[in-house]
Write a structure and sequence with these properties.
There is one protein chain. Helix 2 crosses helix 3 and helix 5 crosses helix 6. The protein is globular. A hairpin with a 6-residue loop joins strand 10 and strand 11. The chain folds into two domains: 44 residues, no CATH class; 164 residues, Vaccinia Virus protein VP39 (Rossmann fold). The chain is an alpha/beta fold. The protein contains seven helices and eleven strands.
């Protein structure tokens, strides 16, 4: 993990300090920012890792852990800076086997140089292509985190993605679908998931992030 200098750390309590900026594959601006002493991965509009999203994932993973879900094999579609991976390894299960799939080359590079990658197999690959490959090879997971964004928008979901997701979940597995949908779009996604045979539970405790937690 990147450690800011003392002056960067101190200044971050007065204003966000940008340490590095770059451009994502799809044309959106990316920044490594220190704010209130925390190093975060942001776009110009939203936090990608280690800010508000870290809080979202912490609460969700804590809840799943309290219900005794297994974290032995974890898949993260949309790795970002590895916020959820750090939570799982350092707070709950240090020996979890985590695969992180990230399609943006800049984020892929930054994750390994500046954020969390310890003990994680990070792949530079399209998440939907990986899902096809996982199904073909019969790979399954205890926990799947779907955290796919283009800046502040979720992608257009391919028609076969939810079916592939079902195949990737083992019999007792669970998946987290993170969105920033408005209320209507979130409800429509829930109907789609139910139509595809999932048991769904909404989680909306943090403003802006609407999450479906699903099981087969």
């Amino acid at each position: 993990m990147l450690k800011p200098s003392f002056f960067q750390w101190l200044g971050s309590f007065f204003w966000p300090v940008i340490i590095k900026s770059g451009r994502g594959n799809l044309g959106h601006d990316l920044e490594i920012v220190v704010y209130h002493g925390k190093v975060m991965l942001d776009t110009r509009r939203v936090n990608y890792s280690f800010g508000k999203l870290h809080e979202v994932m912490m609460k969700l993973i804590q809840r799943l852990h309290s219900k005794s879900y297994s974290f032995d094999k974890v898949l993260m579609l949309g790795y970002g800076g590895g916020s959820a991976a750090q939570i799982i390894h350092e707070k709950f299960q240090h020996d979890s086997q985590i695969v992180g799939v990230e399609s943006d080359a800049t984020i892929y590079d930054w994750a390994q140089r500046y954020f969390y990658s310890k003990g994680v197999k990070i792949l530079l690959e399209d998440a939907f292509d990986y899902a096809h490959r996982a199904v073909e090879n019969e790979w399954d997971y205890d926990l799947i985190i779907v955290d796919l964004f283009i800046d502040d928008r979720n992608p257009v979901w391919p028609k076969d993605f939810w079916e592939n997701l079902k195949y990737m979940m083992n019999s007792s597995g669970v998946a987290i679908i993170n969105t920033m949908c408005d209320d209507q779009a979130f409800k429509e996604l829930g109907k789609q998931l139910q139509h595809d045979g999932f048991i769904t539970q909404p989680w909306n405790e943090i403003k802006e992030n609407r999450v479906w937690v699903i099981k087969k």
